[in-house]
Amino acid sequence: MQSLNKRGYAYRPAERDDVAAAVELFNACSRHAFGRDHFTVNDVRSEWGTPGFDLASDTRLVFHKDRLVAYAEFWNLTAPYVRPWFWGRVHPEHRRRGIGSLLVEWAEERAHRSLPLAPADAQITLGQSVWEEDREAQALLIGRGYAVARRFYRMKTVFNGAIPEPVWPEGITVRTFDPDRDLEPVVRAVADAFRDHWGNVEGPVEQRLALWRQWIATDAEFDPQLWFLAVEGDEIVGVSLCRRADSEDPDQGWVNTLGVRRPWRRRGIALALLHHSFRELRKRGRSGAGLGVDATSLTGADRVYARAGMSPERTTIALEKVLRPGVDLRRTSL
């Protein structure tokens, strides 16, 4: 990245005080792609505080005349460390100047430094996701050896008419999250439910617990009364963990995590959780709800959401590059 200096650019790691400038950059890119802001200061500040995420080693900022014009971050926080991921943005006014390529090079170098963390025989795949509208980013990554691996939908529904009353299978009831006793059981239930999610890699629950504790403590939209647990007796069999507001549309609620554990699937629990969540969000004044989903979900989640009246609003493309061949520990099929 030294070549940036010769063109009037400066670069350094992010610092806590950079969060507002970073959000302005991110939203300039989202407005360019699809016409609206997508990020909030609270969300980015929360992410930067994630346990194990080190701004000094895991971020790079690029400035032009003291204005932040590009950003990249690298993530690889949970064992077995085989699926590192990076994310970056370049301001529309500063594209096609080689900045994006240099940030990708930095991310790949950072990923190579983390290879010793993974099992010696494991395949390491570096991932990145871009909005479908961002053709320049797709072309850049494909030109550097990345391939399209998956598509994900942002789906939404508008609460125009009556929301069906949830129909619970016999023996299944719903209750809300109790922060004093439910966190570890919820994290374990989510890990179990998402075993069959494309790309999932199983890892230690202890690491996930630390991440969840931080997210709950720092998410301004967290409300335990909007975390709905489907239970059979004392067993958590499914969850719908909602945020009060979507970062992109504050009038809309957001279903952050919805999953049903394998033994309890195909019984209508996911649809019942969705209907219950929608009704509760509307009681709180939300005009609709959104969520993210694998466009070709291995478990058919996208079809369940369509049955609940949701439709795709936007597509994100996941691209990947194999950094080291080996045993693929990711879930790719059922």
From TrEMBL:
Keywords attached to this entry: Acyltransferase, Transferase
InterPro entries xrefs: Acyl_CoA_acyltransferase, Bact_Acetyltransf, GNAT_dom
Domain N-acetyltransferase as annotated: residue spans: 9-181, 172-334
SUPFAM superfamilies assigned: Acyl-CoA N-acyltransferases (Nat) (SSF55729)
Organismal lineage: Bacteria, Candidatus Bipolaricaulota, Candidatus Bipolaricaulia, Candidatus Bipolaricaulales, Candidatus Bipolaricaulaceae
Pfam families for the chain: Acetyltransf_1
Protein name: N-acetyltransferase domain-containing protein
A GO term, aspect molecular function: acyltransferase activity, transferring groups other than amino-acyl groups
